[in-house]
Amino acid sequence: MTEPWILPDWPAPRGVHAAVTTRHGPGISTGPYARFNLGLRSGDAAEAVASNRDALHHALDLPSAPRWLRQVHGTTVAQLGPLAGEEEPQADAAVAHLPGTALAILTADCLPVLFCSEDGARIGAAHAGWRGLAAGVLEATIAAMGMAPARLMAWLGPCIGAASYEVGADVRTAFVAHDPEASGCFVATRPGHWHCDLAGLARRKLAAAGVAGIHGGGFDTHADPRFYSYRRDGASSGRFASLIWRD
Predict the structure, then answer these.
(1) Which domains are delineated in the chain?
(2) Cα angle for residues 192, 204, 200 (degrees, 5° grid)
(3) How far apart are CA 247 and CA 118, in angstroms?
(4) Is the pTM here over 0.85, yes or no?
(5) What is the pLDDT of residues 8-53, one digit of tens each?
(6) Nearest C-alpha neighbor of 198 from the set 210, 208, 206, 209
């Protein structure tokens, strides 16, 4: 049986936990969303997503319900605690310092990045599609963590791999214009198009910001059927979650 979770292999301190869901989790979604879709705005039945989110909470024995975001490919970072309000905040990253807080990022090809401090006192999570990555969502998350970047570590979750991700000149220019050496993350395919290493670009940005430990990577959501992929499946793609929480 396929495992329902991926557990990050990184030296997170005691009391900090993380997991990435797959479509094989304990969900009830059907059709193209089968079976563990966690995205409310993906076209799936709202009651199925609500049931899946409740199953996630209990299956991972989370200390509180995950703090979901209304993600818009921007750079806003929400400061969150364990108690959710009525609305999901519009943001593409979140940080927390209160014990019992579970942060969640939804993706289906974009890059989820999880953060924690070396002492485990602070955690963070960011949604980094190419637009948010180019605009500085990782740098904004690091700043919101409120401590020296050298005291932080990051884990890169599943995203679309370079071999599956062809982009146009607008994407390449968004990075190379500010970092000429980022050209190494693009490989020409046909006139005006390149394969783009999204995780590689994130590594460059994290290293430039001074993050001490950068872990993870090596996934391709487009090629790996365990994951939802918007580029592969189109508008009927579900969303999987990358979560980090403190005891």
Answers:
(1) 5-159+212-246 (3.60.140.10)
(2) 55
(3) 15
(4) yes
(5) 999 999 999 999 999 999 999 999 999 999 999 999 999 999 999 9
(6) 206
